[in-house]
Amino acid sequence: MLGVDPVRNPYAPGAGQRPPELAGRARELEVFDVVLERVARGRPERSLMLTGLRGVGKTVLLNTLRSQAIGRLWGTGKIEARPEQSLRRPVAGALHMAVRELAPHHRAPDRIDAFLGVLKAFALRATPATTTGRAAPRLRDRWQPGIDVPATTGRADSGDIEIDLVELFSDAADIATDVGTGIALFIDEMQDLGPQDVSALCAACHELSQLGGALIVVGAGLPHLPAVLSAAKSYSERLFRYQRIDRLDRGAAEQALCAPAAREDVEYEPKALELLYEKSGGYPYFVQAYGKATWDHAPSSPITAADVQVAAPEAEAELAVGFFGSRFERATPAEREYMRAMAALSPVTGESDGAGRDDMDAAVPTAVIARSLGRKPASLSPARDALIKKGLIYSGERGTVAFTVPHFGRYLRTQPA
Fold it and tell me: Which residues lie within the region annotated Disordered (predicted)?
């Protein structure tokens, strides 16, 4: 009977941290391989949007897709959208990196320098305006995008983000076409982009799809990302390929647990795997968290259901602090009241669906929340909007809200008022 060594614990619960076994995502990887090949051959293809709750592995998948593109000698860049941050500087930095990756394969250095001049002009237009409407020259003089060629004039420098981004993406796609590959821009937390930036991205992707340009955008965001894109441009519903990233099925969750364990000569009893799936709900982050705690508590192989039961409180305590608690602490008292009402009003049956997904993850009508708090819906709009902005809840359908974090309603029910 082999001991289970905590030093060899293979599980990795962490934000965006790749698990030892990327289970259940083969279809997404295959689809992206086809996209890369089609774009490189000049075939029309749509950009890709990954959507899902927190903890389902969107960032991990986004990074894996980027590795696929790099493996095909594509130029790549990645940014993380943030509320109130303009898209110009992050996009300029990401495309600068992407073109630098392509430059060694390009036969005409002058073409690269010409594009970098356009890129620099685009980046420098990020200078904010003063209250008088005039540019703030001191900030412009202080910040430089780190591009060694002079900025050009008359291309991607109008100050209109939509016009400029269309021109910039078109020029970048031409560079990629010259070397027979492509450029992929990866954007995480895409729902946090401002309305103007979302509209500009849609317009640029639309132009590229019409021209067959060798540049694609791969975005990742919360479940309401399609609604955000649709609000910006009505044609976005047909512009992007949407892939909903959800929890793992039973087989994939077992693979995520068993494959790394087998490499360490450790096995699980079937009942242990069944219980781990029930507790984790198949959500990849939770699978890693429960797997790690169970491994640390198991005295020997095979790991048993009793080992899972002993370890579960530790996993739940860690999730309560690092996954749930850290988000809860970001909310104001009014916002917490709103979320508690959401959790209390969810149609709870007291049971899960057999795999850890209970009704507390379901959407709740905003009108019902208002009635339960004895308030008018309009008076709760600031709290609701702030929670959406903070990424704690989302509105998938008009007039309803749901938590962005699985099992968050269950967590709130355990917290003192």
Answer: 1-22
Instruction: Return the structure tokens found at 131.
Output: 């209250």
- Residue 329 has which token pair? 């602490």
Q: Among 246, 256, 264, which Cα is nearest to 356's?
A: 246
The pLDDT, as a whole number, for residue 347 is: 60
Instruction: Give the count of beta carbons closer than 10 Å to the beta carbon of residue 3.
Output: 11
Q: Quick one: pLDDT at residue 128?
A: 53
85: left (phi over 0), alpha (psi -120 to 50) or beta: beta
CA Rg, the chain, in Å? Answer: 24
Cβ–Cβ under 8 Å, residues 135 and 129: yes
For each of the domains in the chain, give its residue range(s) and CATH number, in order of start: 26-244 (3.40.50), 256-327 (1.10.8), 330-413 (1.10.10.10)
Give per-residue pLDDT as tens, 346-381: 764 444 444 444 555 688 999 999 999 999 999 999
Helices (H), 212-332: 225-232, 236-239, 250-262, 270-280, 284-297, 305-318, 326-328
Q: What secondary structure does DSSP assign to 73-113, as a single string?
A: T-EEEEEE--TT--SHHHHHHHHHHHHHHHGGG-S-HHHHH
Mean pLDDT of 10-18: 85
> In whole angstroms, what is the distance from residue 306 CA to residue 34 CA?
45
**What region, left, alpha or beta, does residue 212 occupy, with left being phi > 0 and alpha being psi -120 to 50 degrees?**
left
Give the SS3 label for residue 183: strand
pLDDT, tens digit, 9 for 90 and up, residues 236-275 = 888 999 999 999 999 999 999 999 999 999 999 999 999 9
Q: Which of 74, 32, 14, 20 is nearest to 245 (CA)?
A: 32
Phi, then psi, of 263 in degrees rounded to 5: -65, -15
Residue 91 pLDDT exceeds 60: yes
CB 47 within 8 Å of CB 218: yes
